[in-house]
Amino acid sequence: MYHNFFGLSEQAFSIAVNPRYLYMSDQHREALAHLLYGIQIGGFVLLTGEVGTGKTTIIRCLLEQMPDNTDIAIILNPMASAPELLSTICDELGVRYIVDGWSTKDLTDALHHFLLENHRKGRKTVLLIDEAQLLKPTVMEQIRLLTNLETTTEKLLQIILVGQPELKKLLARPSLRQLSQRITARFHLEALSLAETHAYIAHRLRIAGMPDNRNPFTDPIVKRIHTFSGGIPRLINIICERILLGAYGKNRTVIDNEIFEQAALEVSGTKAHLTTPSRLPVVQEKWFYALAGVVATSLLVGIIWLLMPASSTAPVSEAVAAVPVANSSAAESSATASADEQASSVIESSATQSASSTAAKEDIVFWTRDEDRARQALLAYLGADAGTACAESGEEGYACETSSMTTWNELRELNRPAILTLVTADRKLAYVLVIGLGEENALLLRDGTEFTVPWSRIAELWNDELTYVWFRPAGFDTPLMNGQRGPAVNWLADQFARLDRQDSPLARNIYNEKLKKRVELFQESQGIKPDGIVGAQTLRRLNEVLGIDKALITLEDRRSSASSRAESE
């Protein structure tokens, strides 16, 4: 539409991955060199970077440089269990295995045989896992074991892990130190500098066919684009695309501040102000007013305290609660995580004097920047023993699962307290513990205090990732089915005996036909496919029915119960 107007032959700022548009900054060239080196020497290769920094584009470029004698398995959605991931790898490589009744050992043996045969033919095998931060620790451990497949001289499988910065935190866990030690090359992509943003925009325009003398982006506008996008290539593409459309609509060949601000408003919903010497930068200005609000609150409380009689202290909390608090959007834009925490604690202490806050307290900063703090709060709420929390596959204890969901309904279906990962206005990660849901609100828990927040307030920040905990019996590492033996089978039979109030279980030491029929009936009653195979979904639902796992609080039920108690009193 606007291409001819600017002398372009195609769209210059598409967010689709196109290696032809790869801008090879110094750090991108270094990242590619690290990947190529790591593949040559074997083991693990790690590439991390924020969303939109160009990881996938570099991987595409890497794949184009692979030798012809290379077989590649690419995993784009690594959220499966270890057996499912192994079967996907086998499918990608064309490895034959028994479809019905396969186990982790069967899949590993089949893959090992394929790798040996490939090595004999002089071929290399590469496994590339994108979005690797979504991998569960147990699956990570299974992937590590794949690197044990080797000859006396070299590894049979080279593995490339690509993911967001959370992947580095995942690999820093003590339980994954063996895997981390096997990483032979690692690189983290940073955002582009101002100079690189200049070069990046010029590069894409040149590839799209724009003549050298027709660049519509002036230096001041590029500077504003860099500030707006934070140097993230994907965000640069999005804002530049809107800018060119706006300029075309106004029939202007050079971008001015009016066009930029309109484009920024359409992209983010927030007006991008000019930064002048008489005005603080936007982030600093918001924090300044948030801090000023906290200081004003403290001064006002002090004045009230001085004016009150010494014997009268009860109204102080009411006076404090009546003082307006700083808007959360200002606190979101604080320069550091510690500043967020301090502002949050001040705001909460003045706004949550009652036992439970309400949706009217919408301005409370309800998240924490500390993921470990949120996880400990979840485990404490569930009463999970620290020694059995986040147990490895096959061990008895609480399994910690990180998953991706996109709707309120999915969270309701999960029906478990969960830590939701948020991305705040300053594009930093934050975490919130949800312990209950209503039709419009969510019940949160922070620092031992419960309060409600409108669901829409959380939804606008949620990046679809969540972590929850559920009890997993000893011996459960693969789905249970007819004919299997082990402690997990005994545990399952005992739970159904408890559910049915029977003196003796239907099975002992072996998953028999009677137990299978009982499982099918349970699955059908719970809306699960009645196949008699007990996977994690069936186990979690059984835990929920028996009260082994704590469910989400339903706010409507809580209000109804409170109302009934009040009437009876």
Give an overview of the whole structure:
This protein has 569 residues and is an alpha/beta fold. Among the domains are: 3-17 and 192-268, Helicase, Ruva Protein, domain 3; 26-189, Rossmann fold, CATH 3.40.50; 282-352; 487-534, no CATH class. The protein is 46% helix and 14% strand. Strands 6, 7, 8, 9, 10, 11, 12 and 13 form an 8-stranded mixed beta sheet that branches. Helix 9 crosses helix 10 (219-229). The longest helix has 26 residues, at 282-307.
What secondary-structure arrangement, pairings included, does this model have?
Blueprint: H1 3-6, H2 26-41, E1 44-49, H3 55-64, E2 70-75, H4 82-93, H5 104-120, E3 124-129, H6 137-146, E4 158-163, H7 166-171, H8 177-181, E5 183-189, H9 194-207, H10 219-229, H11 233-249, H12 257-268, H13 282-307, H14 315-322, H15 328-332, H16 337-351, E6 356-357, H17 371-382, E7 397-404, H18 408-414, E8 418-423, E9 429-437, E10 441-446, E11 449-454, H19 455-459, E12 462-472, H20 487-500, H21 513-525, H22 536-546, E13 553-554, H23 555-568
